[in-house]
Amino acid sequence: xxxxxxxxxxxxxxxxxxxxxxxxxxxxxxxxxxxxxxxxxxxxxxxxxxxxxxxxxxxxxxxxxxxxxxxxxxxxxxxxxxxxxxxxxxxxxxxxxxxxxxxxxxxxxxxxxxxxxxxxxxxxxxxxxxxxxxxxxxxxxxxxxxxxxxxxxxxxxxxxxxxxxxx
Length: 167
Hints:
A 6-stranded mixed sheet has the order 4-3-5-6-7-8, with helices on one face. Strands 1-2 form a two-stranded antiparallel sheet. It is built from 2 helices and 8 strands. The protein is of the alpha/beta class. The longest helix is centred in the C-terminal third of the chain and has 16 residues, at about 150-165. It is globular and about 40 Å long. It has one domain (about 30-165). The two termini are about 20 Å apart.
Protein backbone atom coordinates (compact mmCIF):
# COMPACT_ATOMS: atom_id res chain seq x y z
CA UNK A 1 0.00 0.00 0.00
CA UNK A 2 1.42 3.32 -0.95
CA UNK A 3 -0.01 6.67 -0.04
CA UNK A 4 0.43 9.58 -2.38
CA UNK A 5 -0.45 13.10 -1.51
CA UNK A 6 -2.51 15.11 -3.93
CA UNK A 7 -2.94 18.75 -3.18
CA UNK A 8 -5.63 20.96 -4.65
CA UNK A 9 -5.50 24.72 -4.47
CA UNK A 10 -8.69 26.67 -4.74
CA UNK A 11 -8.85 30.14 -6.20
CA UNK A 12 -11.34 32.90 -5.72
CA UNK A 13 -11.61 36.45 -6.87
CA UNK A 14 -12.86 39.41 -4.97
CA UNK A 15 -13.85 42.86 -6.21
CA UNK A 16 -10.57 43.39 -8.03
CA UNK A 17 -8.58 41.38 -10.55
CA UNK A 18 -6.52 39.98 -7.66
CA UNK A 19 -6.57 36.18 -7.39
CA UNK A 20 -6.53 34.76 -3.86
CA UNK A 21 -5.06 31.28 -3.58
CA UNK A 22 -6.22 29.07 -0.73
CA UNK A 23 -3.42 26.58 -0.03
CA UNK A 24 -4.47 25.02 3.28
CA UNK A 25 -1.80 22.33 3.01
CA UNK A 26 0.88 25.04 3.15
CA UNK A 27 -0.48 26.39 6.45
CA UNK A 28 1.77 26.41 9.48
CA UNK A 29 1.15 23.54 11.91
CA UNK A 30 -0.93 24.67 14.89
CA UNK A 31 -2.05 21.35 16.35
CA UNK A 32 -1.24 19.49 19.54
CA UNK A 33 2.32 19.76 20.89
CA UNK A 34 4.60 17.06 19.47
CA UNK A 35 7.98 15.71 20.56
CA UNK A 36 10.14 14.66 17.62
CA UNK A 37 13.35 12.66 18.02
CA UNK A 38 15.84 13.45 15.27
CA UNK A 39 18.48 10.90 14.39
CA UNK A 40 20.96 12.98 12.45
CA UNK A 41 20.96 16.70 11.76
CA UNK A 42 18.17 18.65 13.42
CA UNK A 43 16.20 21.11 11.27
CA UNK A 44 17.63 24.63 11.43
CA UNK A 45 14.19 26.20 11.84
CA UNK A 46 11.72 26.07 14.68
CA UNK A 47 8.03 25.20 14.50
CA UNK A 48 5.00 26.06 16.62
CA UNK A 49 4.06 23.34 19.13
CA UNK A 50 7.01 21.16 18.10
CA UNK A 51 9.90 20.21 20.37
CA UNK A 52 12.86 18.77 18.48
CA UNK A 53 15.23 16.46 20.39
CA UNK A 54 18.55 14.99 19.30
CA UNK A 55 18.27 11.20 19.40
CA UNK A 56 20.57 8.26 18.86
CA UNK A 57 19.63 5.25 16.72
CA UNK A 58 19.23 3.05 19.83
CA UNK A 59 16.25 5.17 20.88
CA UNK A 60 14.31 3.48 18.05
CA UNK A 61 14.30 0.41 20.29
CA UNK A 62 12.33 2.40 22.92
CA UNK A 63 9.83 4.03 20.58
CA UNK A 64 7.46 5.43 23.21
CA UNK A 65 9.97 8.18 24.00
CA UNK A 66 8.84 10.44 21.12
CA UNK A 67 5.71 11.03 19.04
CA UNK A 68 7.75 10.37 15.88
CA UNK A 69 11.30 10.16 14.57
CA UNK A 70 13.03 12.04 11.78
CA UNK A 71 16.03 10.31 10.26
CA UNK A 72 18.43 12.31 8.11
CA UNK A 73 21.08 11.33 5.58
CA UNK A 74 23.90 10.78 8.12
CA UNK A 75 22.09 7.58 9.21
CA UNK A 76 20.48 6.34 5.98
CA UNK A 77 23.23 3.75 5.41
CA UNK A 78 23.60 2.54 8.99
CA UNK A 79 19.88 2.05 9.60
CA UNK A 80 19.47 0.04 6.38
CA UNK A 81 21.78 -2.71 7.69
CA UNK A 82 20.45 -6.15 8.69
CA UNK A 83 20.62 -5.56 12.46
CA UNK A 84 18.07 -2.71 12.15
CA UNK A 85 15.53 -4.52 9.93
CA UNK A 86 13.57 -6.12 12.79
CA UNK A 87 13.47 -2.83 14.71
CA UNK A 88 12.05 -0.93 11.73
CA UNK A 89 9.75 -3.81 10.70
CA UNK A 90 8.05 -3.66 14.08
CA UNK A 91 8.26 0.01 15.04
CA UNK A 92 5.06 1.42 16.53
CA UNK A 93 6.19 5.05 16.38
CA UNK A 94 6.13 6.85 13.01
CA UNK A 95 9.56 7.16 11.37
CA UNK A 96 10.18 9.75 8.65
CA UNK A 97 13.22 9.74 6.39
CA UNK A 98 13.87 13.37 5.48
CA UNK A 99 15.34 14.04 2.00
CA UNK A 100 15.57 10.31 1.29
CA UNK A 101 16.86 9.62 -2.22
CA UNK A 102 15.77 5.95 -2.33
CA UNK A 103 12.44 4.29 -1.56
CA UNK A 104 11.85 3.78 2.17
CA UNK A 105 10.69 0.16 1.89
CA UNK A 106 14.37 -0.89 1.75
CA UNK A 107 14.48 -0.38 5.52
CA UNK A 108 12.03 -3.27 5.93
CA UNK A 109 13.43 -5.72 3.36
CA UNK A 110 16.20 -8.06 4.57
CA UNK A 111 18.05 -8.29 1.25
CA UNK A 112 18.24 -4.54 0.60
CA UNK A 113 20.56 -1.81 1.85
CA UNK A 114 20.88 1.90 1.21
CA UNK A 115 22.85 2.32 -2.00
CA UNK A 116 22.67 -1.41 -2.86
CA UNK A 117 20.68 -1.14 -6.08
CA UNK A 118 17.95 0.55 -4.06
CA UNK A 119 15.21 2.01 -6.26
CA UNK A 120 15.32 5.80 -6.52
CA UNK A 121 12.83 7.78 -4.47
CA UNK A 122 9.62 9.00 -6.00
CA UNK A 123 9.08 11.50 -3.17
CA UNK A 124 11.18 13.95 -1.22
CA UNK A 125 10.55 12.45 2.23
CA UNK A 126 8.88 9.21 3.34
CA UNK A 127 7.50 7.81 6.56
CA UNK A 128 5.99 4.60 7.88
CA UNK A 129 4.75 2.93 11.05
CA UNK A 130 3.63 -0.60 11.86
CA UNK A 131 -0.10 -0.87 12.63
CA UNK A 132 -1.08 -4.46 13.34
CA UNK A 133 -0.32 -6.59 10.29
CA UNK A 134 0.17 -3.65 7.92
CA UNK A 135 2.01 -0.36 7.63
CA UNK A 136 0.78 3.20 7.41
CA UNK A 137 2.97 4.98 4.89
CA UNK A 138 3.33 8.61 3.95
CA UNK A 139 5.13 10.32 1.09
CA UNK A 140 5.79 14.00 0.38
CA UNK A 141 6.91 15.08 -3.07
CA UNK A 142 8.08 18.33 -4.53
CA UNK A 143 9.98 19.31 -7.60
CA UNK A 144 12.49 21.67 -6.02
CA UNK A 145 15.91 20.95 -4.50
CA UNK A 146 15.80 17.54 -2.79
CA UNK A 147 18.51 18.65 -0.38
CA UNK A 148 16.21 21.26 1.17
CA UNK A 149 13.02 20.43 2.98
CA UNK A 150 10.28 23.00 2.50
CA UNK A 151 8.20 24.14 5.43
CA UNK A 152 5.07 22.66 3.86
CA UNK A 153 6.63 19.18 4.04
CA UNK A 154 7.45 19.55 7.73
CA UNK A 155 4.00 20.99 8.47
CA UNK A 156 2.32 18.16 6.52
CA UNK A 157 4.35 15.58 8.43
CA UNK A 158 3.37 17.17 11.75
CA UNK A 159 -0.33 17.06 10.76
CA UNK A 160 0.00 13.40 9.74
CA UNK A 161 1.70 12.53 13.05
CA UNK A 162 -1.11 14.25 14.95
CA UNK A 163 -3.75 12.44 12.88
CA UNK A 164 -2.09 9.08 13.48
CA UNK A 165 -1.34 9.52 17.19
CA UNK A 166 -4.37 11.43 18.45
CA UNK A 167 -7.36 10.77 16.16
